[in-house]
Here is the input.
Amino acid sequence: MIKTITLIGSGNVATHLGKAFLNQGVEINQVYSYNKDNAFELANQLNAMPCDEIKFISDESDAYFICIKDDYIEDIAQQLSVKNKIVVHTSGSVPLQILNQFENHGIFYPLQTFSKEKDLDLTTVPFCIEANNKKTKHALLEFAKTLSNNVHEIDSEQRKKIHLAAVFACNFSNYMYSIAEDILRQEHLNFEMLKPLILETAKKTQENSPKAMQTGPAIRNDQEVIKEHIELLNDSKKHQEIYQLISHAILNSSDISK
Amino acid sequence: MIKTITLIGSGNVATHLGKAFLNQGVEINQVYSYNKDNAFELANQLNAMPCDEIKFISDESDAYFICIKDDYIEDIAQQLSVKNKIVVHTSGSVPLQILNQFENHGIFYPLQTFSKEKDLDLTTVPFCIEANNKKTKHALLEFAKTLSNNVHEIDSEQRKKIHLAAVFACNFSNYMYSIAEDILRQEHLNFEMLKPLILETAKKTQENSPKAMQTGPAIRNDQEVIKEHIELLNDSKKHQEIYQLISHAILNSSDISK
Here is the structure.
């Protein structure tokens, strides 16, 4: 059973997980951040001790959650000395093997987009769990289930694909919103107008396959509107290219099922 | 005051508007569709008379709502003979002038994505209103306000831009969901897993600028993950191209403000 935790990182994921752990009665021993202020701020919220040097991370917690940028995970892990305790990272794309030095290691990947400013109900968030041995896997699965009703055992290869899918579903769809915002701003129109549409489009996926719900000029091969839209995008070659490529892909999507 | 209406069309927009009109105590006189069954079905729902020939459309309604595919609006309008009654279409991209033959004509464009299967609260839907004269504009604005708290006076040029923005915000974001679904399906993973992420990404736009909320490998210039993702997409050149183009655009978005 995981009852005490050390958080390594003080960003969005560390903040949301830390709060959820605390709500479950877990004790957060330490919060590490290389940035002292951030360490203090999050530690303070979680009744934990702040720490800004890896060597001062105590080995007394049941589990260590590395919630930092992908690029730094390996480096931080190599400096961490916590014997046989459980060490996990929360990244979608970094392989399990990066934590090989630890006797008990795993992945604790929440498939969600986190912002510090926005509270989030973790109970519906999918958690992707992986571990190097049965005991650790069991501990992580059980622990994740105290936070969420949506816990999955996922290997590193699958997790990579899930992360890739998430880039399309989250990062790229958000960029589409961002282009829409640009287009409206140029006309001095308020982005507010698009908010009900954005929300409804996302809501539709909750009950229907997005493929079946595809609408717009491209899927109905409305060349006149497509041509006009490309002209309207005349002052941004970048947006024109994106419009053309995606429209073309949608237009052909009915006969390309792969 | 618009108190009686004839609906021309029986698709998603006609269905949702018709129901909302009825709820406001408006009488729907006739529902026209070239498809007799569809005319009967919607007419039946709206306590209206079905009609499958334009020449049988009576001229007794206060207003005529043309809710059909863009390509057919001009043709249908030319066959319609309703004297000085108000005639509007509900399209985002067809100009006002297409209805020039009518003494009182306008646009009644609901900026939303409609599915017959899914009920929708119209009170928050933005309605874009335009008309060829003051009297008609006033009548349409007042009428739209009985349905929604989000009514705007928008000219045809602005409406085109709004429609273009909506293609990005709705059609293209939905296509991003659709690619994500493909990627998961190939791994025999359930699309269900992405639903909380999709919804949360859309919800974030309700309170924050999407530009400020951009996350993912591209915005943090994580070339290692980007490279790996492009390799993972090896069996779909189409998805690879989209990934590369959008990632490149996101990567450069900080210094391209236009």
Notes: The longest strand of chain A covers residues 104-110. The CA atoms of residues 245 and 251 of chain A lie 10 Å apart. Chain A touches chain B through 93 residues (CB under 8 Å).
